[in-house]
Amino acid sequence: MTASIRRAAAVALFAMGLAATGAAGAACRFTKVGTLAVDVSASGLQMEGSLNGQPMQVSVDIGSSATHVNRATAERAKLALQHTQFVLYGTSGETRAYRALADDISFGPLRWQRAGIGVAWDDAGAVDQPAVLAADYLLQTDLEMVLAERQLRFFRPDGCGDAFLAYWDAQAVELSMGERSPQDRRVVIEVLLNGKPVRARFSSSAPVSMIDQAAALRAGLVAPEGAARTWPGRFDSIDIGGESIRNTQVLVRDRWARYRSKHSSWDDAERVAGQPEMILGLDFLKAHRVLFAPSQGRVYLSHLGGPVFSVIEPP
Q1: Same domain, 295 and 195
Q2: Which of 125, 182, 201, 245 could covalently link to 276 via disulfide, CB atoms 3.0 to 4.6 Å apart?
Q3: Mean per-residue pLDDT, 114-129
C-alpha cells in the first residue's frame, strides 16, 4: 500500500467510524478516552484548579516535564514537604523539587484525593506559574491539540502499528519524535533552518516560538549591530517535515544566557548543550491541528492557514 493510499484509506475509515488498518493488517482502533477544555490566552493554555480547597490557576504545558505547584501555592495549601533528589532546570536558573501529599487536587474536571504532587520551591523566575499540568500527565496517551476549539483530546490506540492516525486530514505532515523517556515525555522533533538541522521542542506556555541565537548564526543569520536581547531573525526557509515555510521571521534569543551567568560548571555546560535550540510555541500550535502520538513515536500536523510564527511577545 503506497503512503498516499494508506493515508486516504485511514481517513475514510475513521470518518465512517470504522477501524483503520495497521502494518500487519490488524484492525486499528483509535479510541477517544477523554476531552479537556482549556482557556487559550496570549500567554498560554489555562484552566482553573484547586489544592486542598484553595483555588489556583493552572498552566497546561506540554513543554514542562513535571506536573507541579510553586512555593506560594504549596504554602497556601499548607502542604508538608518531603525532600527529593531532583532539581528543575529552566533558562533562568534552577529550583529544588520537593514532593507533598495533598488531601485533594483538581485540574479542571480532573480530581484526585490523597495524591502526591511536585513542588518547585525556589522559583528563580523559571517556575512562576501557580500550578503546571505538564507532559508527564498530558502525554501518557496520544494527545490531540485542537486549540481552535479550545480542546485537548486524549486517545488510546489498539492494534494500530504504523497506521496513519491523522483522521481529520489525509495530507497531514508526519514527523518522528526524538528519543523520550518515562522521566521526560516532552516532544522534540527535527527542524531545518535554512537547511541546517536543529532540535525543536513544543511548548504551550511559550507565547511565541523562539530560536536560540547560536542556531540562528549557524543557519547564516547575522545579529543586527546593537541588537537587543531578543531580535527578529528572517529565515529563507524553515522545514518541518513536509511543511515548508519560506521567507519568515522568528524571534531569536540567547535563551540560556541567564542560566550560564549563574551556573558555569562542566555539568552545567553539558546540560545547556543538550537542550533543543528551538521552541515551537503557542503561535505555532494555534496555527496547526496537532496530534502527538507517543504510541508510534510520531507527530501529525495540519496547517490551518494564516501566519505560523509571530515576532510580537505579549506584554
Answers
A1: yes
A2: 201
A3: 74
